[in-house]
Amino acid sequence: AQKITQTQPGMFVQEKEAVTLDCTYDTSDQSYGLFWYKQPSSGEMIFLIYQGSYDEQNATEGRYSLNFQKARKSANLVISASQLGDSAMYFCAMRVNSGYSTLTFGKGTMLLVSP
Amino acid sequence: GAVVSQHPSWVICKSGTSVKIECRSLDFQATTMFWYRQFPKQSLMLMATSNEGSKATYEQGVEKDKFLINHASLTLSTLTVTSAHPEDSSFYICSAPIAGDNEQFFGPGTRLTVL
């Protein structure tokens, strides 16, 4: 079974600063993918970034980067230059590359960006 | 990216009635779709996997007779909440993977309120 742990229920950051959202995972599978999604108050799930277990480079997408430390089983999301519109719930998720391609989600971190 | 739609986006119904929620993949074919439920301030929990042309696979603890899933075509899956009760009030969201694509595409969600 897979497990995703997000230990930060909430995070505060000031506009234009960087913030790191923590995520650790547990799986016995060797091939898996890690995802981060943003969920604003509207409820839609917005895909941010993906990291494959065999990817040697950390994934980056604009202001988002994923700090992947395989030995520690961590996949932290780094948001640089925070904007007010970044205020939302953030979910870390995992998909193993065998059987179903469903996602297992963490409990989420609420990020609030202040002016 | 690919688009998944859901209808309705919100619904209010009386206790004891049945509610049907549609999930459509608009620009790709989806042999598999996933249905998630999200209670307020909680994470997404997988309810069932919808398979085109065959029976859905339900997660442990999800009543198959209460949450009827029909995946009649490659672009449409429906979730029917039968004899809905207030405890079924939740945010229901579907998603569809695309083979060979890392991203899993989510619908905008349906907010169900049972009075």
Could you walk me through the main structural features you see in this protein, from its secondary elements to its overall organization?
The complex is a heterodimer of chains A (115) and B (115). Chain A has 115 residues and is mainly beta. In chain A, 0% of the residues lie in helices and 52% in strands. Chain A has strands at 3-5, 10-14, 19-21, 24-26, 32-39, 46-52, 60-61, 64-69, 74-79, 88-96, 104-105, 109-114. In chain A, strands 2, 5, 6, 10, 11 and 12 form a 6-stranded mixed β-sheet that branches. Chain A has a 4-stranded antiparallel β-sheet with strand order 3-9-8-7, with no helix packed on it. Chain B is an all-beta fold and 115 residues long. Chain B has no helices and 11 strands. Chain B has strands at 4-7, 10-13, 19-25, 32-38, 45-51, 57-58, 67-73, 76-81, 90-97, 104-106, 110-114. In chain B, strands 2, 4, 5, 6, 9, 10 and 11 form a 7-stranded mixed β-sheet that branches. The chains are: A mainly beta (115), B mainly beta (115). The interface between A and B is medium-sized, with 21 and 22 residues.
Low-confidence stretches of chain A: none
Gyration radius from CA atoms of chain B, angstroms: 13 Å
Mean pLDDT of chain A: 94
Subunit organisation of the chains: heterodimer
Instruction: Write the H/E string of chain A, N to C.
Output: EEEEEEEEEEEE
Largest sheet of chain A: 6 strands, mixed
Overall geometry of chain B? globular
Helix content of chain B: under 10%
Number of distinct helices of chain B: 0
Distance between the terminal alpha carbons of chain A, to the nearest Å? 41 Å
Low-confidence stretches of chain B: none
Topology at a glance:
The complex is a heterodimer of chains A (115) and B (115).
Chain A: E1 3-5, E2 10-14, E3 19-21, E4 24-26, E5 32-39, E6 46-52, E7 60-61, E8 64-69, E9 74-79, E10 88-96, E11 104-105, E12 109-114
Parallel strand pairs in A: 2-12
Antiparallel strand pairs in A: 1-4, 3-9, 5-6, 5-10, 7-8, 8-9, 10-11, 10-12
Chain B: E1 4-7, E2 10-13, E3 19-25, E4 32-38, E5 45-51, E6 57-58, E7 67-73, E8 76-81, E9 90-97, E10 104-106, E11 110-114
Parallel strand pairs in B: 2-11
Antiparallel strand pairs in B: 1-3, 3-8, 4-5, 4-9, 5-6, 7-8, 9-10, 9-11
